[in-house]
Every structure is written in C-alpha cells, then in structure tokens.
Design brief:
Structural class: alpha/beta
Number of strands: 12
Shape: globular
Strand order of the largest sheet: 3-2-1-4-5
Distance between the termini: 28 Å
Number of helices: 10
Largest sheet: 5 strands, mixed
Helix content: 25-40%
CATH topology of the largest domain: Nucleotidyltransferase, domain 5
Length: 351
C-alpha cells in the first residue's frame, strides 16, 4: 500500500488529500476562496496568497485526520510546483518542504496539468486505461489538447492561443452581470436560453488543434452592449451597458454552444487522427453538462471525465499524479523552486 499526501495551492483553492495506490481517495479537503474573489469579479493574486497561508495548515491536518493515518504511514509528499500564480504556488511548495524535512518523507513537485490528467484515475469504480488516449484539459487558466501514450508520456497536440475556455466563460459572465465564477452561472442561464439565437464565430486556425476564444468573447461584447461616447466599451471596463432588448439567457446559451462545439470538434478530430482508445476531459470546464453531452454524442469513442468534485482544483489529483511519479523514481530536493509557467510534455520532469 502506497500512501501519497497531495498539496495543491496553484490558484484560489487550498487543498490537501491522501490517496492510496494512485486510485483510491482516503481523504480530500478543499478550502475554497470563491466568496473572497467574487467581490473582485476574478482571482486577486495577493489575496489568494494570504488566504493560502491562513488555510494550509488546517487543510493538511484535516486531510491526515480524515485518512486515519499519521505522517509515519506516508510514502511521499506531492505538491503542485506549477503552473499557477507564483505567490500561491510558493505557499504550498514551502509548506510541503517543511513537512518533508520534519517527516523525512520524499518530496515530489507535480505539474498541475498532470494532476488534472490523473483525476481520471480517481473515478470509481476504477477502470483500467488502455493507451493511447486523447485528453482535453479545459479550465480557467488552461485549454490543452494532449495525446497520452503511457504514464508520464505526453505529446502536446494544441492549446489556446489567447484566453482559456474557462477564462472566456468568466469574462463573458462578468460582461452579462452574472456572479463569479462565470462558467457555472453561464451554464445555468443557458438552460433557459435559445442556443440558436446568435451564431457566434468559431476561430478557424491554421493549426487544426489550437484554440482561440478571444473572437467569440468580442462578438458577445458587440452583440450585447451599447456604444458609449462613440465607441464600444471593453468588457473589462467598468460601466458596461447591456442592450435592453438582449436576452442574457440567449446570449449565454449561444456563447456556450460556440465554445463547446469548438472544443468537441477539435478533440474528436484529434482522437480519430491518433487512433485513441478513449477521450478524456478534465479541468473545471469539464463539469459543464453541455460539453459532456456533446462529446459523448459526437464521438464514437468512450468519453471519460471526473466526478464533479474532482473537476475543479483539488489535491487528490496531485496525489494521484504523485503516485505514478513516485513509482517511476522521481524525487525532488529542498532546492526545488516553483514554475509558474510549466508546460506538460515528455520533457516536463527532465533533469
């Protein structure tokens, strides 16, 4: 039995978890900062760092208590090293280093994107994975399309050239006056809207597996707002005025349709081109029901996605990824530094 303690603090969730053998969650504790950042309409990095400092000891202690083990039973401590907000990452990394010194346990610095990948290994009942699989990681900070040919073996097929899909959801949600975070609130509004009301554009890119969502975001702004002082306000400016005759529900539904269709089209195409056995979706936007349904309906392959509580940032996924890195022989020293910009590919953990 291999017990891995995972610690996650890359953005606005302070989390700790204990995972057994990379597939079984013994505990999973998350301290959310949504209420804190809602007043800003997005994540405020300095406030996030302070909140991590206040919460991290509590979540680690509770994760160990819920797992029913003490630190002597751990085999390793896995912590998110990047990508993410530098201040937030430092809180988790430094706490993990302190635990490693105090307990004598090995330290593993884990890529946050790989954590999202391994959230799929935590679905119950556990099903074996037959490689290769195509993985769509889609969240507030990331939109990545990967080919996974084995544990720790990744080929990046494409990614966003501007806004991540979740970021576009948040910005459009703010434009429409919906609460933060935008993704789930746009999904709720879309339920009562007409997805055919507006034909928002999909970016046509030379690289068939890359994404761009800035165009659809701008199209929503032009359709939903009125010009002020001879020019149209940008959505990030205060005082944006929505058109009185525009249905927020219709805008939300049409925007969601445009984003979902782009994600599905490229993912299904990549899976066919690379003879994948399955399609994996992970990250916060993988909780979107429209995305899940469209991917299942339009793919001939099985589609796997995490349970809702593992879609957003959590430490169980970091511990699961840590297990496979631990088994491969990965170890990090106390000199390990955080990496706010850290791509996921075959060279991610290269020395």
């Amino acid at each position: 039995m291999t017990y891995i303690l995972g610690i996650e603090s890359s953005c606005d969730e302070t989390a700790a978890a204990v995972v057994l053998n990379g597939t079984t969650i013994a505990s999973n504790v998350v301290a959310s900062q949504i209420d804190l950042h809602a007043q800003y309409g997005g994540v405020f990095p300095e406030a996030a760092s302070r909140a991590h400092v206040e919460a991290i000891g509590f979540v680690v202690d509770n994760a160990m208590r819920d797992a029913g083990i003490d630190f002597s039973r751990l085999d390793a401590i896995a912590v998110t090293r990047g990508p993410g907000l530098v201040g937030s990452l430092l809180v988790g990394a430094n706490y993990a280093k302190g635990l490693a010194v105090a307990t004598g346990k090995p330290l593993l610095g884990i890529n946050h994107l790989e954590g999202h990948v391994y959230s799929l290994w935590l679905t119950q009942p556990y099903r074996e994975v037959k490689f290769p699989v195509v993985i769509l990681i889609v969240s507030g900070g990331h939109t990545e399309l990967l080919l996974m040919t084995g544990h720790g073996e990744y080929q990046r097929l494409g990614g966003t050239l501007d806004d991540a899909a979740g970021e576009a959801f948040d910005k459009v949600g703010r434009l429409l006056g919906l609460p933060f975070p935008g993704g789930p609130n746009i999904e709720r509004a879309a339920i009562n809207g007409n997805p055919q009301a507006f034909d928002f554009p999909r970016a046509r890119l030379e690289d068939e597996y890359d994404f761009s969502f800035s165009g659809v975001k701008t199209a929503v702004m032009r359709e939903a707002t009125v010009a002020t002082d001879g020019r149209r306000n940008r959505e990030e400016h205060k005082g944006v005025q929505l058109r009185a005759d525009v249905s927020i529900n219709d805008i939300a539904a049409s925007f969601q349709r445009a984003v979902v269709q782009t994600l599905v089209d490229k993912t299904v195409k990549a899976a066919k081109a690379h003879d994948a056995t399955e399609i994996f979706i992970s990250g916060g936007v993988s909780a979107n029901t429209a995305l899940r349904n469209a991917m299942r309906q339009q793919s001939e392959l099985p589609v796997r996605y995490p349970p809702l509580n593992l879609c957003t940032d959590n430490a169980a996924m970091i511990a699961a990824a840590g297990y496979y890195r631990f088994e491969s022989g990965l170890r990090d020293g106390l000199e390990m530094d955080v990496r706010p910009m850290w791509p996921l590919n075959n060279e991610t953990y290269a020395r």
